[in-house]
Amino acid sequence: MIEPTIELKVVDRNNWGTCIRLKLKEDQTKFIAPNLYSIAQSKVEPNLLPYAIYANNEMIGFTLIDSEPDPKDLCHWIPRFMIDACFQGQGYGKASMKTIIEHIKSMPNSTAIRISFDPDNDSARALYLKMGFMDTGEIEDDEVIFEMRIVK
Ligand SMILES: CC(C)(COP(=O)(O)OP(=O)(O)OC[C@H]1O[C@@H](n2cnc3c(N)ncnc32)[C@H](O)[C@@H]1OP(=O)(O)O)[C@@H](O)C(=O)NCCC(=O)NCCS
Question: How far apart are CA 52 and CA 50, in angstroms?
């Protein structure tokens, strides 16, 4: 399969309406907060940057990236990541995560990336393992924490 061209665009007044209408499969809604909630959160926690994910100029997903390293572990967190249900299972998750990792790598002083998810979220686990994340063995708020060390 030809890898899609993925672009991250900051969520702004022009695209937030589309972003909050992105859909998940019904059994996935328990795994992630609604995009509307994440966008609201980014307004009161301005270190959290909301990005719409585009493939070939069409919005296919959403992510929230912490632009500041966690003072505790100096990791950059990816608090949210989702691909619209219509686009799932076609390699967009992998391609998007690759772009997100490159984006974080380009941030100054980035040393590692952390992501947490519900232990029952098999798709997320498989995807993150494929991308090179490793299980830290740590659990926070009932979620497992995976980490990727950054090599520059
Ligand atoms: C997790 C998620 C982002 C994957 O997106 P996607 O576009 O379907 O992923 P891809 O098509 O690139 O698949 C990547 C890998 O994920 C795994 N995967 C995807 N769908 C899967 C499924 N239904 N069951 C098990 N594994 C699955 C596979 O390992 C797959 O690799 P493969 O194609 O080589 O087999 C998507 O399912 C999603 O948005 N889920 C709801 C939100 C969520 O749970 N986010 C993560 C927690 S914050």
Answer: 7
